[in-house]
Design goal:
The chain contains eleven helices and six strands. With about 300 residues, the protein is α+β, with helices and mostly antiparallel strands. It folds into two domains: about 190 residues, Multidrug efflux transporter AcrB transmembrane fold (Up-down Bundle); about 80 residues, Alpha-Beta Plaits. A hairpin with a 5-residue loop joins strand 3 and strand 4.
Length: about 300
């Protein structure tokens, strides 16, 4: 327990200017990647074919994926639908004017339906209009979450802290999207959920440090602002490391054991968790210092008592 109670003495604010420059360059590069390279949009946003099949016996998803890949459906998304015998398959948009009968016949042939006694339960064509509508709703969800965070921070902290927290949120979101673009990770509904989850996770890390900075500014009245910020970050460092390690353990378990259905979510969140640890120090806190936050900003306004007695 003594190890966890020790407060290190790292000079986090020493390279703060370098940190801002590096963050600015990487954020600009991430934005350029998203704008010019784009994202590897999944079937949720591009449309495609939705198929439900029923097996007579329980089946392994890896077996279904290998059968589909052998028939040319490498991008098929396969998952259970209610039980281990009901499987839902999502395919990319079909080329040409293939009918549902042609698609279902080819799909059942790929799954060896005659040998495995597979029944086709449902087949639907999801048009690009529905994918575009889903993309618009996803973007609206991101915007709503961001606005909600901005409103909360504006009331929760002094405005100089709020600017730092908002900058960290923008930094983390752009860095995650840039990473997904570079690695060409499929961007589907689960990946969108990872971006939304990152907003909350990053904000939580920022609030922990800001609370300690505010407390130390009021307690240590003779200390310089950089010394107070360094002390606050060091005091919360062990807590942040432990929190991130436990979160990463769960995410790596999902990555290696969760299967392809949560692969994009796991990869995005692992990167996001690491970025949020950095941004809570060198973006949010650093920006508050750059904005010139001082002890007087946190003190309540003085009130003058007027003695009306003669």
């Amino acid at each position: 327990m003594r190890f966890f109670n020790r407060v290190p003495k790292f000079d986090f604010m020493g390279p703060r200017i370098v940190g801002l420059w590096v963050s600015g360059i990487l954020t600009a590069a991430a934005l350029a990647l998203v704008l010019f390279r784009g994202l590897n949009l999944g079937i949720d946003f591009t449309g495609g074919v939705l198929v439900e099949v029923e097996y007579q016996q329980a089946v392994e998803l890896d077996e279904v994926r290998s059968d589909l890949a052998a028939a040319g459906y490498e991008r098929a998304v396969v998952q259970f639908f209610g039980s281990s015998t009901a499987v839902m398959i999502r395919l990319p948009p079909t080329e040409g004017d293939a009918s549902s009968a042609q698609v279902s016949a080819h799909l059942l042939e790929a799954l060896h339906a005659d040998d495995k006694q597979i029944e086709l339960r449902r087949i639907e064509f999801v048009g690009p209009q529905l994918g575009e509508e889903l993309a618009e709703k996803g973007g609206l969800a991101l915007l709503t979450a961001f606005i909600g965070i901005v409103i909360y921070i504006a009331f929760r902290f002094e405005w100089k802290f709020a600017i730092g927290a908002i900058a960290a949120q923008c930094h983390d979101a752009l860095m995650m999207l840039g990473f997904l673009s570079v690695m060409w990770v499929e961007f589907d509904i689960t990946t969108l959920a990872a971006v939304l989850a990152l907003f909350g996770y990053s904000l939580n890390e920022t609030i922990v440090i800001f609370d300690r900075v505010r407390e130390n500014l009021l307690l240590q009245r003779r200390s310089e602002i950089l010394d107070v910020v360094n002390l606050s970050v060091n005091q919360t460092l062990m807590r942040s490391v432990i929190t991130h390690l436990t979160t990463l353990l769960v995410l790596f378990a999902l990555l290696f054991l969760g299967g392809p259905s949560v692969h994009s979510f796991s990869v995005a969140m692992i990167f996001g968790v690491l970025v949020s640890l950095y941004s809570s120090i060198y973006i949010s806190t650093n920006m508050a210092v750059v904005m010139g936050v001082k002890r007087e900003d946190l003190l309540p306004p003085e009130t003058k008592e007027i003695d009306e007695m003669p």
